[in-house]
Amino acid sequence: MVRNRPRRRMRPLSQVLAALVIAGSSLAGASPAAANGADPTEPTGGPCAFTPTPDDPAARPVPLPPDPRRTPSRGTVHVVLRTNLGPIPLVLDRAQAPCTVLSFLHLTRHRFYDRTHCHRLTAYPTLKVLQCGDPTGTGEGGPGYRYQDELPTDLPPAPTDPTGARRVYARGVLAMANAGPDTNGSQFFLVYADSALRPNYTIFGTVDPAGLDTLDRVAAGGVAPTPDDPAPVDGAPALSTEIRVARIHR
């Protein structure tokens, strides 16, 4: 599964990395709604219903996204993730997932993704993704809010799954990680080779060819070995991959 790991109130939960360290001011430990003087549990009033998560506070201070009653749902937006290993240009599709694109652009504008490391690389035969979007680098950090799924309905069945439950998330897909239904936050994954997943992950864009070149470089480096597993297929990438800046391309 491609998940962001929800945090417990006092101590971390992670199946891949052991520690959770969240640095910053007291504002970083408060929900965005609370920082703005609003009810820390009330969702925004528009159709996206961005909902504060006070038990899972923001890894970096960021307000709730705007939530207009007419969420932009047409056209594409280009975003470039400039990493230490090369650029990863993205094309976001508003028609495919308007609320997800709205949130991703909001976090990009607030520089939430700047100076963050892609914390997880998978190299299973049926799951090949790079996961990013957590400033803590642990797989447990998020923006202090969650929002609804916008799940794909037209993905082809995965030929590796005789039950038909899993679908093909094709090479170049950009999708949201989650911790269950309607728990999208800031973490996302980039598919570097066709993968088989249940259609439980919102697809909101694609990686362009230059970005795939960078992904291939990360994937070729493999997963970093650990004392307990010298040849892992899931964990931190051996080639440390830092998003130095994420910018909307105009």
From TrEMBL:
Stretches the record annotates as Disordered: 30-74
Key words, A-Z: Isomerase, Signal
Record-annotated PPIase cyclophilin-type domain positions: 83-248
KW Isomerase (keyword) present: yes
PROSITE patterns from the UniProt entry: CSA_PPIASE_2
Gene3D superfamilies: Cyclophilin-like
GO molecular function: peptidyl-prolyl cis-trans isomerase activity
Secretion signal span: 1-30
Pfam hit, one: Pro_isomerase
Described function: PPIases accelerate the folding of proteins. It catalyzes the cis-trans isomerization of proline imidic peptide bonds in oligopeptides.
Protein name in UniProt: Peptidyl-prolyl cis-trans isomerase B (Cyclophilin B)
